[in-house]
Write a structure and sequence with these properties.
The chain is mainly beta and 1209 residues long. The protein is 7% helix and 39% strand. It contains 10 helices and 83 strands. β5 and β6 form a beta hairpin. It is elongated and about 140 Å long. It is found in: Secreted, Extracellular space, Extracellular matrix. Its main location: secreted. It comes from Cairina moschata (Muscovy duck).
């Protein structure tokens, strides 16, 4: 490779120096490519020394400026610039990287100052000039310590004002026009003038005449080329440069305000093309077409320049040493990217060595080639980077899937505790779904071929002693490679108006340019995420045009299942009437008691029809401004406030407001555009002074969800009244399409915040929740919360995975409270609870150790006012100090430490949310983690038989009694020959009081739905037993349910009054039967919806308040036992042998049947209710002996005491 161009600016003391990394902070849009040293120091603080001594520059194609024929300027003192207007005809500046040479010594000379003016200024005289430099120390030293550098601090040289000028001629002017336009030869003249002529005249002539060569007159002087330049939407484009294609192309015209152009002398039928060029658009080419009447026509359509975006990302691969691997990526945009670059662990790979384009092929792999790979695509509009892909290179014979399972704990029922020291948690094993090596043929494919992943190869049945009974459980015995689980990835939710909550009925949904469906009557939607999607951008459109289009970047769980998302849309501002013939100013921002953020100024004559014709009538103008000073507007903001920088990295913006415009003709309602307009921002509304110089105007690309730069702001002062002078930032733009605009600054003070979600407030590491949407809103500095909420500047949402989530946030190292953040968490629309901060802050509960926790200022929303929700908290995002050991372990990580944040162990500091699920318990014989669909195992005893679709079934039980009671469902195989009599699982739920009915509560109890098992061959009617804890008897059964069960045999014995037993219906019944069934691709979401309907007692409603008199399946009446007396139910759990002996003693005493019947009936009914004994005694499953007794019997499985209520109950 040839050396890059080098320009030196000084010597290196001692000869020691090193080059910095390459910088590229600008791309050659607008006026050119500017890589100033000042800007590089701003974006990369501390990366360039105080006094660079040399600079290198080269294009991103690794070519020298002189090789590409471009004029550039660069120096180690100022940096680099390439100006488009200085380039040869038809060329623009390339995109350049630069780097600096820095001395290694700490003490060095600064750059020489400029030479002073000469001490003598009269012509013909001589004098002296001086220049100076200072001794600099890069390290911090004591203020009075003297610095010593070798050499002189001052230089002098002789100078002269020069001899007195002689009279001289100026340069010749340009040749004038030829005296004849065509035909025979003519003449042309050029002139010059004599300067500095006081007494003497210049020698020579002031004018020069030259013959001009004859040129043929146009062959078709009466023929004309007429054309139009329009955008892709059909809007006229003025000021486009028109070229007649040839070698070289000839500029022949410019388009007028209506996009039209005229060129005389172009013959009819000319086989030629014309091209049009306009800033911000891709050059367009069109043929010249003759219409046979002496006029040729051309219509040139220009596509707006759009930054590239990735549509195909490289995929992770596992290969064996010696094999080959192929990575692929693909980007789209306008123009379509042709240049690709590949990086390994962040280092650019040599194109000449690897000969790559959009595909990278690595042959004969060695372990050193393992790591992350990503690509970058670039055009003149910008660049974009792909997501990284991990390459794992295994040694020969090394297994990609460890056959030994990893630990995975499940919680056992309460009665399974053997003694005070024994744990209720049992290791059932787990196979991590890591990718396995593919076949050698996969090395030539972009994808992974038939994907294989590590999974369960073999399971074993274990039996656990639980208070005298045996509880079966299946554990993973061996892992191995097999087909990867491919669960569906969905985003579900609801779209409503931000102000009224009105649903968006039958609104259109777009992914990119493709319409994929509509919202429902209640605003609900479901989007199936396309394979290999990294960033899901959806656009919601109100067909009635009452709401502003919403472009949302929706989080999703790539491991499968559905994520629930509430989408808010801004209501359009009511239009106001404007006179297009006058200058109009529309305020931006209207928060009560505060000045507007700025105003949109539309000059007279700026409104245009799409044809380019100036519109002079009445305009109905609607400008909808989203004001971040109102924190309630954060949910309605579009996109995720990100843009792609010059390196293609997606980085965040900080907003000061966004607005949508809609201009229409007053009479016809036809849409209007505008020519140049002004956006004026009140500088007094920008609280952070450093943002004044970085403020830019942006527009949203609705297909990529990324913001693209429209223009910069310049400061201007304006006097309001006699004394008040205010500073404004003024930006210019044209409104030629309906886009959302934004007033933003790029913010480089960035961090990541670590958050985890748990199934309960025990915060056990193995009870973390996946698929939880964590949202973070950045807040502007302003004390007081929540009474005086801060203005928001940015928002982000991330879905938790197996190791929590890392959310980007703005942060500051000098002022801990410079930025704060507001965090919430939702799962299937349910808000999770944050850890309390009052009356006493508990670091162990919050998950962050002191003293860092105090610096972060953790406060839950109800810290000062208990009436506020408990579902959010606020923290100061204080950037961690790397020199303070207390701040190097989370929960805030520097922006470049994302991998460290993502891989942080659960013992590291993190913030926490949890579900309020006291008095609830679930047990599956075949373990399954509902938040991780890849943990599903195909087994006949699996609770969920199909990992692509989850059907949740609940039965509503009413309890008439003075308190709340635990209710258990015991679920065993009922009709399938492979599972009959075998346990599927247990569910315990505590009833919830009805706030309107005295001594009444209700329980929504899950049971295993009947249906096909995992082999999809036979239906199993699950035998379900509903057993309330305590002295309870069944008093009523829903008549419709009883009739249905009678009509669909076999019918389970249900004579036991202490329980309710049924062979579960196969049909999805409804609230009229007391049965609630919901099918969804996410098991948690299916259960949440079913529980909400069950609480409400309807088939389509939703409630978090129990209505115990609506939609009931079965009713029990429960009584309190005398204090200190155990029920027979409890005695069977604690002392089964003594309980049965006491029962036998009752028979021996020959007491009357009337006296003993009640106690015997209670025991028998509990056994029957457990599903183990029929009414006449037959066993429905294999009996197990009770230790210590000479009789055979079964222990009635008891509900676990002390578990929780549904959230919000």
């Amino acid at each position: 490779m040839r050396p890059s161009r080098v320009l030196t600016g000084g010597s290196v003391p001692g000869g020691g120096a090193e080059w910095t990394s390459w910088f590229n902070i600008d791309h050659p849009g607008g006026d050119g490519d500017y890589e100033s040293l000042e800007a590089i120091r701003f974006y990369y603080r501390g990366r360039v020394c105080e006094r660079p001594v040399a600079i290198q520059a080269r294009t991103t194609e690794w070519e020298l400026p002189e090789d590409v024929g471009e004029v550039v300027h660069f120096s180690p003192k100022k940096g680099f610039r390439c100006v488009n207007k200085e380039q040869p005809q038809g060329k623009t500046c390339s995109n350049y990287h630069i780097r600096f040479l820095c001395p290694l010594e700490h003490i060095y000379w600064s750059h020489w100052s400029s030479w002073s003016p000469c001490s003598r200024s009269a012509c013909g005289s001589s004098g002296t000039q001086t220049r100076q430099r200072r001794c600099v120390n890069a390290q911090v030293v004591a203020a009075l310590k003297e610095l010593k550098c070798k050499g002189k601090a001052v230089e002098r040289r002789a100078c002269s004002a020069g001899p007195c000028p002689e009279p001289t001629w100026t340069e010749w002017g340009a040749w004038g026009p030829c005296s004849r336009s065509c035909g025979s030869a003519g003449t042309r003249v050029r002139r010059r003038s004599c300067k500095n002529a006081k007494k003497l005249l210049c020698a020579g002539r002031p004018a020069e005449v030259q013959k001009c060569p004859p040129s043929p007159c146009p062959a078709c002087p009466e023929h004309t080329l007429q054309g139009t330049v329009v955008s892709a939407t059909g809007a006229a484009l003025p000021s486009a440069r028109i070229y007649l294609e040839g070698r070289p192309p000839v500029l022949v015209a410019r388009s007028d305000t209506r996009g039209n152009f005229h060129v005389a002398g172009v013959c009819e039928g000319t086989a030629a093309n014309v091209s049009a060029h306009r800033d911000g658009f891709v050059p367009g080419l069109a043929p010249v077409i003759s219409n046979g009447s002496g006029v040729s026509v051309a219509r040139v359509t220009l596509q707006k320049l759009e930054k590239p975006y990735m549509v195909l990302h490289p995929k992770p691969k596992v290969r064996v040493a010696g094999q080959e691997v192929t990575f692929c990526c693909k980007a789209s945009g306008t123009p379509v990217p042709k240049k690709y670059y590949w990086y390994h662990n962040g280092t650019l790979l040599d194109r000449k060595v690897h000969k790559y384009g959009s595909r990278l092929v690595l042959r004969a792999l060695v372990p050193e080639q393992a790591g992350t790979y990503h690509c970058k695509a670039s055009t003149e509009a910008g660049a974009i980077r792909s997501a990284p892909a991990q390459l794992t290179v295994l040694a020969q014979g090394q297994q990609s899937c460890n056959p030994k399972p990893e630990p995975s704990l499940i919680e056992l029922p309460a009665e399974c505790r053997q003694d005070a020291e024994s744990s209720r948690y049992y290791d059932v094993g787990h196979c991590p779904p890591a990718p396995c090596t593919g076949s050698p043929a996969d090395g030539k494919r972009c994808g992974a071929g038939a994907r294989r992943c590590c999974g369960v190869r073999r399971m074993e049945v274990r039996e656990i002693q639980c208070g005298g009974s045996v509880l079966p459980v299946k554990v993973v015995a061996e892992c191995g490679c097999g087909p990867c689980a491919q669960p569906r990835v969905l985003v579900q939710g609801r779209v409503t108006a931000a102000d009224t909550g009105e649903p968006l009925r039958f609104g259109q949904i777009f992914l990119g340019r493709k319409k994929i469906g509509f919202t429902g009557y209640q605003g609900s939607f479901t989007i199936e995420v396309p394979p290999d999607t990294q960033r899901l951008v959806a656009r919601f459109v109100d067909r009635q045009q009452r709401l502003v289009d919403a472009v949302k970047v929706l989080p999703f769980n790539s491991r499968g299942g559905a994520v629930y998302q509430e989408v808010k849309m801004m209501r359009k501002k009511e239009p106001v009437e404007l006179d297009a013939g006058r200058t109009n100013a529309i305020p931006l921002g209207e928060v009560g008691g505060q000045e507007p953020v700025g105003e949109l100024v539309i000059p007279a004559g700026a409104f245009l029809r799409p044809s380019g014709e100036v519109f002079r009538g009445t305009v109905k103008a609607s400008v909808t401004f989203l004001d971040p000073r109102d924190i309630a507007t954060a949910g309605a903001a579009s996109s995720d406030l990100s843009f792609a920088n010059a390196e293609g990295e997606i980085v965040p913006l900080r907003t000061y407001g966004m607005f949508a415009v809609d201009f229409r003709e007053g009479d016809s309602g036809e849409a209007l555009q505008t020519g140049p307009v002004e956006v004026r921002m009140d500088a007094g509304q920008i609280r952070m002074a450093e943002h004044l110089k970085k403020m830019k105007l942006w527009s949203l690309n609705p297909e990529t969800g990324l913001w693209e730069e429209e223009g910069v702001f310049r400061p201007a002062k304006e006097r309001r009244g006699k004394r008040e002078e205010r500073t404004f930032l003024i930006g210019n733009m044209e409104i030629r399409e309906r886009r959302l605009f934004n007033l933003d600054v790029p913010e480089d003070r960035r961090c990541f915040v670590k958050v985890r979600a748990y199934s309960n407030e025990k915060f056990n590491p193995y009870e973390q929740l996946e698929g939880v949407v964590i949202s973070l809103i950045n807040l502007e500095p302003q004390p007081g919360f929540p009474a005086n909420p801060r203005a928001w500047g940015r928002f982000d949402s991330v879905v938790t995975g197996p190791n929590g989530a890392c959310l980007p946030a703005f942060c500051d190292a000098r002022r801990p409270d410079a930025y704060s953040a507001y965090l919430t968490a939702t799962l299937g629309g349910e808000e999770l609870e944050a850890v309390a901060s009052s009356p006493k802050l508990n670091p162990n509960a919050v998950g962050v150790s002191q003293p860092y926790l105090n610096k972060l200022g953790y406060r839950r929303l109800d810290h000062d006012d208990p009436s506020f929700k408990k579902t959010a908290f606020q923290v100061n995002v204080a950037k961690p100090d790397p020199n303070n050991v207390d701040e190097t372990n989370g929960p805030v990580y520097p922006y470049r430490s994302l991998k460290e944040c993502e891989e942080a162990p659960v013992s590291a500091n993190h913030f926490r949310f949890y579900r309020v699920e006291v008095d609830k318990y679930e047990y599956n014989v075949v373990p399954f983690k509902e938040s991780d669909l890849t943990s599903w195992t195909g087994d006949y005893l699996a609770w969920w038989p199909n990992p692509q679709e989850f059907r949740a079934c609940f039965i509503k039980v009413r309890i008439e009694g003075p308190q709340e009671y635990m209710v258990r469902s015991r679920n065993v195989g009922g009709s399938h020959p492979r599972t009959r009599g075998q346990l599927y699982g247990l569910r315990d739920t505590r009833s919830v009081r009805d706030g309107l009915l005295e001594n009444s509560s209700g329980a929504c109890v899950e049971f295993k739905c009947s249906g096909m098992l995992y082999d999809q061959s036979l239906v199993d009617r699950t035998l379900v037993s509903i057993i309330p804890q305590g002295s309870c008897r069944r008093t009523a059964v829903n008549g419709l349910l009883r009739d249905y069960l009678a009509r669909h045999p076999p019918v389970a014995d249900a004579n036991n009054t202490a329980a309710f037993t049924m062979l579960a219906p196969v049909d999805p019944l409804g609230h009229n039967y007391g049965i609630y069934t919901v099918t969804d691709q996410n098991p948690r979401l299916a259960k949440e919806i079913a529980i909400g309907r069950c609480f409400d007692g309807t088939s389509d409603g939703f409630s978090r308040e129990m209505k115990s008199d609506a939609g009931i399946a079965v009713t029990f009446t429960c009584q309190e036992r005398p204090a200190g007396r155990e029920s027979f139910f409890q005695r069977l759990l604690t002392s089964p042998a003594e309980a049965l002996e006491a029962l036998q003693a009752l028979d021996v005493t020959n007491r009357s049947l009337a006296e003993t019947r009640g106690q015997w009936e209670s025991c028998r009914n509990e056994l029957v209710g457990a599903g183990e004994m029929g009414e006449d005694g037959p066993l429905l499953g294999p009996p197990h002996p009770i230790p210590g007794t000479g009789v055979r019997g079964l222990l009635c499985a008891a509900p676990s005491p002390g578990r929780g209520k549904r959230a919000g109950a």
